Amino acid sequence: MASPVTQNYANHVRFDPLFHFFALPVVGLTVIAAIVHAVQRPNWFSIWLVAFSVAVVVVTLKARLYALRVQDRLIRLEERERIEKLLTGPLHSRIGELTERQLIALRFCCDAELQGLVQQTVEKNLASPDIKKSVQVWRPDFFRV
Q1: 19 class by beta-carbon count within 10 Å (0-12 exposed, 13-18 middle, 19+ buried)
Q2: Which of 5, 10, 25, 67 has the least CB density, counted as fewest CB within 10 Å?
Q3: Residue 89 pLDDT > 90, yes or no?
Q4: β partners of residue 109
């Protein structure tokens, strides 16, 4: 099997083709079709189809968001453990100041530059995109859904 493409800030966003390019468009088009049908033939059943198709959109999006939220929690735990092992000195006591978004962004930072980037993040309250842009040696994450 060929090795994956080198990951960096420009290409780290992942798309799930079945979700982003099939499921979402199908449920979105279904809502539109249900609304058109309800406008053309208004009755209780066509109104129910609109409500049901909107519910399918909500369920589809919530299922995706639940999976991402679980991943974020796991990444947060992994990064807290990694940072606690690697940081020394007064910076170690400031780990609790890092937000969830900051911890998730720091996962792309290699161990060698972690201390400096955590210090910048805490001092300047860097946002997630700024942290990712500051990473010099990218630590890829190919497992994100």
Answers
A1: middle
A2: 10
A3: no
A4: 138
